[in-house]
């Protein structure tokens, strides 16, 4: 095993931080203002947690909807085909 580590330049880190900032809704609302890397990482973690909660909520709602449908109905088949996509 090699003990050499891949070095990332400060320029590459800044570029990655800028890309990450462009993906976060909160950072986009701030406009051109640049947040610290620590604040940006904290916002990223919060955003990912928020997305996970939203996925859980939507999954629960979909499960409840599917439970009320006739499994052989056209609507149920459409939903199943969309989920396979």
From TrEMBL:
Keywords, comma-separated and alphabetical: Growth regulation, Transcription, Transcription regulation
Keyword S-adenosyl-L-methionine: no
GO molecular function annotation: protein dimerization activity
Gene3D superfamilies named in the record: Helix-loop-helix DNA-binding domain
Sequence intervals crossing the membrane: none
A matching Pfam family: bHLH_ILI
Cross-referenced SUPFAM superfamilies: HLH, helix-loop-helix DNA-binding domain (SSF47459)
Residue stretches making up the BHLH domain: 1-51
GO BP, sorted A to Z: regulation of DNA-templated transcription; regulation of growth
This protein's record includes keyword Transcription: yes
Family: Belongs to the bHLH protein family.
Protein name: (wild Malaysian banana) hypothetical protein
């Amino acid at each position: 095993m090699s003990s050499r580590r891949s070095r990332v330049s400060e320029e590459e880190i800044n570029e990655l931080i800028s890309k990450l900032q462009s993906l976060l809704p909160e950072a986009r609302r701030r406009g051109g203002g640049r947040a610290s890397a620590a604040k940006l990482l904290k916002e990223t973690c919060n955003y990912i947690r928020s997305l996970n909660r939203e996925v859980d909520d939507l999954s629960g709602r979909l499960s409840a909807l599917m439970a009320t449908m006739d499994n052989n109905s056209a609507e149920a088949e459409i939903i199943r085909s969309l989920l396979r996509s």
